Amino acid sequence: xxxxxxxxxxxxQKQAKYLAISQAIREAIKCGQVISSEQLxxxxxxxxxxxxxxxxxxxxxxxxxAQGWITSKQRKGYFVAADLPVNSSLRNKPxxxxxxxxxxxxxxxxxxxSTIQTTASYRYNFAGGTPDISLFPFHEFKxxxxxxxxxxxxxxxxxxxxxxxxxxxxxxxxxxxxxRSITNREIVITNGSQEALYILSQILLSPILSxxxxxxxxxxxxxxxxxxxxxxxxxxxxxQGMIPEALEQAIERQIQIGQPIALVYLTPLHQYPTTVTLxxxxxxxIYRIASKHNIAIIEDDYxxxxxxxxxxxxxxxxxxxxxLVIYLSTFSKVMFPGVRIGFMALDKTLSDAVxxxxxxxxxxxxxxxxxxxxxxxxAGAFERYLRKATKIYHQRRDFMVQQLTHYQQLGRVKxxxxxxxxxxxxxxxxESAELLAKTALSDAIFIQxxxxxxxxxxxxxxxxxxxxxxxxxxxxxxxxxxxxFKAR
Length: 488
Ligand SMILES: Cc1ncc(COP(=O)(O)O)c(C=O)c1O
Known about the structure:
Number of domains: 3
Strand order of the largest sheet: 4-12-11-10-9-5-6
Shape: elongated
Strand content: 5-15%
Number of strands: 17
Bound molecules: pyridoxal-5'-phosphate
CATH superfamily of the largest domain: Type I PLP-dependent aspartate aminotransferase-like (Major domain)
Oligomer: single chain
CATH architecture of the largest domain: 3-Layer(aba) Sandwich
């Protein structure tokens, strides 16, 4: 019978002594002090060695028996288990002497980090889609979270009901009907729009298909499309958004080369990143083209509420007789991106497939958070907050317009159009946009520039920047712009 060379030191506050001893014995086995089937010291012997009592050692041994490291034989004592996977290689070699072989991963997908968004804190963050999270009524919302836990719907807390928490689906359905004229749709609650885009890419795309997008757009969406092997086809846009004739030509070209377009991805209300609203005539033209070629449209309506000049145009999904529009929206802008809740409103013919695929990824979205949002919406507090945020963002837009007019007079800004809505402005410079953004970054100021939004980077005129106004106070907008456009 062996003597084990172990020292079991227990921090009484943090770990019971028998656990510390069992851990020390396990380490002794792992590093080959005792090998498979070998007898261990008796409980009495080890208790004497470690100056503790026999019951503590027996508790430690019982723990190791439960974990499968050792066995006990009646009237014989304790033995290292015969079938430990580490043993064969350890028989003559302690663990420490094994060569450390770095594992070589064989990746099958591109994991390019270029679209990872940063949480770095900037002196002034002009990122275009960032809401002012400090405006969010956390204190009020806390009471709905409290209700979700104190009066839970036990059934819904289980697996199942992947499409979403029923009361939230009811609230979203009512809200879409009232505020966006969208009716007769199935609602699927997702982990933000990003999950919706990923699911759609997985079930509707393949390497022999392609996706038509505006020439400038939202790179995280493209990453979903290309993850399925599909190609992105950039469609020319002008001051009004995607040009329908260019879309039709691309559709025909792609059919000829054997990689047909299966989806059109659009941000029609506030084009990302230029913020222009796609006019009704173009919406109809694009819809007709899509319907003629049996192509679905993903309508990404990411910041619908924030429209200042008039009521926002009703989404394309509100007039969709063929059921080809997949409507996406998110709580990332009306709450904050970290809430990770969005939704799809889609035709019944597609919703089952979407829900089935979603179960592969994550079963469902956090039910307590869905519950809290449903209560918040039902109480009318959601729309109250929206009205408040819209008013503040409207003032910030007007303030940024005033400021940019000033820098235009100084010759630093060439032109800009006042956006009807959204959270950012698209601004033309008299100088290199890339250089300006780089210089600003060295001053801890974040600005996005044209090159970052183009499908085909070689098309960059290097003259445009996107300046978010929603996430900054008027004071910060003024100070930030002053730093960006400081006399050089
Ligand atoms: C065009 C566009 N779509 C969607 C989103 C929101 O995505 P998510 O709901 O995954 O946060 C954003 C956020 O910046 C966006 O700019």
